[in-house]
Specification:
Layout lengths: L7 E5 L4 H12 L3 E6 L2 H13 L3 E6 L5 H15 L4 E4 L15 H26 L4 E6 L13 H21 L4 E8 L5 H6 L3 H9 L9 H12 L10 E4 L9
Parallel strand pairs: 1-2, 1-4, 2-3, 4-5, 5-6, 6-7
């Protein structure tokens, strides 16, 4: 049942990390994929990879905080592939780090806009397309701000906690329209964004240690959970904050 044959999907933040792995997996499982990110070159290489493997994908680069871009992605899906069934709103940034009293309002707003407002904008245009046939909306949250508090990550934590609130509200609002809405809550994952948190052996050892599994996830492991939420295998799952966190939320050792 974890197949997307005949489905059309949008994946944002697809140039690297979880988004790239998920776009490739969705295409492998039969979806026609619209891939989104800022960097056109990386999107072009992703489309080439998907096409070479026998899949279908189209790229549109842009800024997810721009409302016209959110609209354009949906219009492209409808024009190119005839509709929209799945949207993985995954784009995000680590954002400003440091003492909360030292974070500027500009840096705060940039993190909130990129991680939370972009999710709202995506849903604003994806939902009308899905009202025709139903669909699955997926957002990427984080254990940071949900089950774990990290010092000096206030903006990131607030934005990712907000994503879960948005998920629950949309799930309640559109469940009767056969639209399911869920948030993925990954633990530490090996991605370029994680390297921004720190890539020294000491930091990696610390991050590994706070997980029950004593390691970080690969992007491909998180993509498998996104596939579950996108597919009919999760047909009775909505409004959830799905932990895919290697036990970081329960680990005390």
């Amino acid at each position: 049942m974890m197949t997307l044959t005949g489905k059309v999907a949008i994946v944002t933040g697809a140039s690297s990390g979880i988004g790239r792995a998920t776009a490739k997996l969705f295409a492998q499982q039969g979806a026609k994929v619209i891939v989104s990110a800022r960097r056109q070159h990386e999107l072009d290489s992703l489309v080439a990879e998907i096409t070479a493997a026998g899949g279908e994908a189209t790229a549109l680069s842009g800024d997810v905080t721009n409302e016209s871009y959110a609209k354009a992605l949906v219009e492209l899906a409808e024009r190119e592939y005839g509709g929209l069934d799945v949207a993985f709103n995954n784009a995000g940034i680590l954002g400003a780090s440091g003492s909360t009293t030292d974070i500027t309002l500009e840096a705060w707003n940039n993190t909130i806009n990129t991680n939370l407002s972009s999710a709202f904008l995506g849903a604003k245009y994806q939902i009308p397309a899905m009202l025709k046939t139903g669909g699955s909306l997926i957002f990427t949250s984080s254990f940071v701000g949900h089950t774990v508090g990290f010092p000096q990550k206030a903006a990131y934590a607030a934005s990712k906690a907000g994503v879960i609130g948005l998920t629950k509200a949309l799930a309640a609002e559109y469940g009767a329209n056969a639209i399911r809405v869920n948030a993925l809550v990954p633990g530490g994952t090996i991605t370029p964004m994680a390297d921004e948190f720190g890539d020294s052996p000491e930091v990696i050892e610390f991050v590994n240690s706070i997980h029950a599994l004593k390691r970080r996830a690969t992007a491909e492991e998180i993509a498998q959970s996104a596939l579950y939420l996108a597919s009919d295998a999760s047909s009775f799952t909505t409004g959830s904050a799905m932990l895919v966190d290697g036990g970081v939320s329960i680990n005390k050792t």
